Amino acid sequence: MDSDLEVSALxxxxxxxxxxxxxxxxxxxxxxxxxxxxxxxxxxxxxAKAYGRPVGGGRGGxxxxxxxEKPELAALVADAADRAGALWAxxxxx
Length: 94
Hints:
Blueprint: E1 11-15, E2 22-26, E3 29-40, E4 46-54, E5 65-66, H1 71-89
Antiparallel strand pairs: 1-3, 2-3, 3-4, 4-5
């Protein structure tokens, strides 16, 4: 393995299970947050942002929201990262 290879992005998208979804408001519009974008930072820590759809319908803007500091959401992020790592490790090439 070539450790000099520069990998610029390691990110996954995770669907938030129904019981863990929440709402937040931005620019006067309420969104239900149903997707997380999880990134692996260069130092090995994880960072996550939440995305969703306007409660009132429509497409809405592509706006990120912070992920609340809740143990069940932290566990979802960690489990998703572990699952993604296992899938990456088992890749079968191009």
